[in-house]
Specification:
single chain; alpha+beta; Helix Hairpins; Heat Shock Protein 90; five-stranded mixed beta sheet; about 15% strand
Length: about 450
């Protein structure tokens, strides 16, 4: 049914173009005829003037009965009708009647009807024509030829339109089938190979959309499984601590159990916050809104606010930025917060935050004096829920979402984030950069 509908639409489009060409050809022909009408009338009037004058001089001296007989003889001799008609019976304008009274010849009508007045006979007119004597409503030969040419041209345009539109129809049919499969939930549908370039942008955009959708669904499944897995440990510890609180009479033990519950609740809150942030960034829901402002002041204020979360590690700042930098004040704190927390988790005693502008790029580095990250593991550290191996000193390395969020923020600004080696502290360096003038 859908194929028949598309085919009918294609046929209507081709016929519509043909009829439009036919109408345009007839319109042009009509305009040409209207424009040439006066020229043709003048030519007929000049051409027939001599014949009309001879007939008027021949009929003027005769009395009415003899004049009627003479007109009948002339009508039989001429190829076109010759008649005497009542002056009041014809639809002539006042101007035309005035011209007839002055002895002029009047030419009217498509088939050229020629009027002339008889001297001394105001109630009668001499009528010659119509000059085209064909009967049965036949079209003039010239008009029939022009109409035939217009019809042939319209048919040619309709056939050419059909031939040109067939590839578009096939492409539309393929896109329709793909859309039907996608609406049925078959996201593995391959987009059709096009025969024309008209719908190429649609197919390219659809393929990109399907790839993003597949990636988003895969990320969602992975994140759902990872979050579910991560929730089990703090929930199990929380359940164990609550059970201990019920039966524990010792005040010191109860206080420790309460502290353990608070730590587990904080861990759950951090996991939920990080998961939601990562999900919003993966789905593109947090689009950058750049402003030109004082990024250095924002970095210093954020760093001071995060000092209580540094697990007792010393946080040093070295910010050397100009007064105006393009950045998103809503997204940058996400990167700074997660980057500093990650550094504090691995540092021994010190974390160093620095920022500067070089070669038109904003650079921001977070260094620590920890063990560092092996070169082979540096790229994997940015994958969501990808946690590096534990060490006896640091224990767990978080949820594996912090660095993923940092990279998303850098990419949203048109830049990138990577891990390296801290040049002075010897541990890991988290380095971010993006264009200082805006993404």
């Amino acid at each position: 049914m859908a194929a028949l509908t598309l085919r009918a639409s294609l046929l209507r489009m081709a016929l519509g173009l043909g009829l439009a060409v036919l109408a345009l050809a007839l319109l042009v022909e009509g305009l040409v005829l209207v424009g040439a009408s006066e020229v043709t009338d003048d030519y007929v009037r000049s051409f027939m003037r001599g014949t009309v004058d001879l007939l008027v001089r021949d009929l003027a001296p005769l009395d009415p009965p003899a004049r009627r007989d003479r007109v009948q003889e002339l009508d039989a001799q001429f190829d076109y009708p010759v008649r005497l008609i009542p002056a009041e019976g014809e639809r002539l304008s006042a101007n035309q009647r005035a011209r007839l009274a002055r002895g002029e010849v009047i030419v009217t009508g498509f088939n050229r009807r020629i009027y002339a007045a008889l001297p001394g006979e105001p109630d009668q007119l001499l009528l010659l024509g119509p000059l085209d004597t064909r009967r049965g409503g036949e079209l003039p030969k010239e008009l029939a030829s022009q109409l035939a040419v217009a019809v042939v041209l319209a048919l040619g345009v309709a056939m050419l339109a059909w031939w040109q539109l067939r590839p578009l129809w096939r492409d539309l049919r393929g896109l329709q089938r793909a859309a039907e499969r996608l609406s049925a939930g078959r996201l593995d549908t391959e987009m059709p190979v096009l025969q024309s370039r008209l719908f190429a942008p649609v197919v390219v955009a659809s393929r990109a959309m399907l790839e993003r959708l597949a990636t988003a669904l895969a990320t969602q499944r992975e994140m759902t499984g990872a979050v579910s897995h991560e929730l089990r440990t703090p929930l199990a510890r929380l359940r164990f601590a609550i059970d201990a609180l019920v039966d524990e009479d010792n005040g010191t033990a109860r206080e420790q159990a309460v502290l353990a519950c608070e730590r587990d609740i904080d861990e759950l809150d951090s996991l939920i916050d990080a998961s939601l942030t990562a999900a919003r960034m993966d789905m593109g829901a947090m689009q950058p809104e750049l402003i030109s402002g004082d990024l250095g002041e924002l970095l210093i204020l954020e760093a001071k606010s995060l000092e209580p979360l540094m697990d007792g590690k010393l946080l040093e700042t070295e910010v050397r930025l100009p007064g105006k930098i393009s950045f998103d004040p809503r997204l940058v704190p996400y990167a700074l917060r997660n980057g500093l927390r990650n550094a504090a988790r691995h540092a021994r005693t010190r974390v160093h935050l620095s920022a500067w502008v070089e070669a038109g790029q904003l650079w921001m580095a977070i260094d620590d004096d920890g063990e560092g990250v092996a070169p082979a593991m540096r790229e994997a550290a940015f994958e969501p829920f990808k946690r590096l191996e534990k060490s006896p000193r640091t224990g767990t390395r978080g949820f594996g979402l912090g660095l993923s969020i940092v990279r998303h923020v850098a990419q949203a600004h048109g830049g990138q984030a990577r891990l390296g080696e801290a040049p002075r502290l010897g541990g890991a360096r988290l380095l971010l950069h993006w264009p200082a003038g805006g993404a």
